[in-house]
Amino acid sequence: MDLKTIIDEFDRVAKKQELSTSKYHQLIVMVEDEIKQALADLQSANDIDHKSVIKHLTEKLDAYRVQEQIKMLKKDLKVDLKNYPEILGEFVETDISKASRNVEFESPIVNKIILNLLYHEGLFDVANTFTNEAQQRHINWLRRDFSKMHEILDALKAKNLEPALNWVSVNRRILDPKESNNLEFNLRRLQFLKLLKETPSEGINFVKTYLSPLASNHRNEVLNLTVFFFWPEKIETSPYSDLMSPEKWAAVSQEFIVQFCGSIGVSFRNPLTVTVDAGALGLPTLLNTANLMGKDEWAAMRKFPVAMELGKEFQFHSAFVCPVCKEQSDEDNPAMMLGMDECHHVLCSQTISALTKRKTRFHTIQCPYCSCVMSVNMCRRLYL
After folding, report:
1. Which of 191, 264, 306, 335 could lock 320 by a disulfide, CB 3.0 to 4.6 Å apart?
2. How far is residue 295's CA from residue 98's CA, in Å, rounded to a whole number?
3. 8-state DSSP, 10
């Protein structure tokens, strides 16, 4: 079964749901109209006619068979909704619990990761509740720094650029020169356009004071900004109106987040998000492997038997693949450098063990690349 079959079935169920919703709405409107009409009749009728009005309304509602129609609509939709998971199950694995293993989590570490997420997202009230319920201490320095970050982000949302510009100025020495220059220019560009729209007469002085010092790295962009002097009151209709779009403000905010997180030594992507994203990418491989292995074998597995390629986005350290055995190094089979003063070629630990000559008094190894002979004791682990 191909993906088109799934999409077609999904579209069919979605259309059926829309039709059911439309019929529900139509039925409700009809009942509502009858009740409104009855209320109007009651207000205009004398006491003797009230019973007849109520009787007439009851007969009308009974004729609509409201409950029967709702049950029928639910039944039809339920059949389609029941069939869709069955069709979906033929295409993808719906029981992802098969990939689960009984792994003991270190609660303090998991709690810190959750706190990191809450701070990162600015959910400080939720973080307070979490620390109380989980009996977890706040990470004070991280809370303080992320609180500052969100103060500046809130200012950016309000089109106030000064806090972000002040932060760049204060932290310039610890920021990457190129990246901080780009961030400052993007902030100044928005500031210039905002100023030009409000007080065009100050535009030239602003360019001289703030944009000219940044022109060495942004010459073309600065030249493009001078075009706005021809449209001081019609920036939205100028050829470069997109420079003031909401997307540009959002991009500057994201750029600031990256720079801010780098300045405090944390990733701009919080660990929990990275973990969930990596897990989602690796889930198909995990499920396929779990289905091929026995339940006991899967539960007892110490090392994943196949390569898990998640892309460079999820590579956070150097990886070494032994040129002899073609296996990637890990904690059980680390990368080792041969000798201290000899060849300095690198193999993994298991390869060195396999090549070691044990017949001599001192265990020696001959490098498979430069033929240097050395004692195994002279090999040193590399920490990547």
Report:
1. 335
2. 9
3. H
The token pair that represents 376 in the structure block: 């195994």
User: Of 59, 91, 123, which residue sits at a domain end?
Assistant: 91
What angle in degrees, to the nearest 10, is found between the helix axes of 246-263 and 177-198? 150
CB 88 within 8 A of CB 6: yes
Separation of alpha carbons 347 and 94, rounded Å? 42
pLDDT tens across the length of the chain (384 residues): 467 777 887 788 788 888 888 888 888 888 888 888 888 888 876 665 777 888 888 888 888 888 888 888 777 777 766 776 676 666 666 677 788 877 777 888 889 999 999 999 999 999 999 999 988 888 899 999 999 999 999 999 999 999 999 999 999 888 888 888 889 888 988 888 888 777 777 878 888 888 888 877 888 887 777 776 766 566 666 666 677 778 889 999 999 999 999 999 888 888 899 889 988 888 888 888 888 888 888 877 877 777 777 888 887 777 788 888 888 888 888 999 987 666 888 999 888 888 886 555 567 888 888 878 888 888 888 887
Range of the domain at 356: 335-381
Token reading at 27: 């039925």
Do 259 and 144 sit in the same domain of this protein?
yes
CA 218 to chain centre: 31
Cα of first residue to Cα of last residue in the chain, in angstroms, is 44
Q: Is residue 77 part of a domain?
A: yes
Residue 235 counted as domain residue? yes
What gap in Å lies between CA 210 and CA 184, rounded to an integer? 10
Cβ atoms of 337 and 379 within 8 Å: the answer is: yes
Strand order in the sheet with 380-381: 346-348, 335-337, 380-381
DSSP readout, 88-126?
HHHHS---GGGG-------HHHHHHHHHHHHHHTT-HHH
Q: Round to whole Å and give the CA distance between 366 and 246.
A: 64
Co-location of 145 and 253 in the same domain: yes
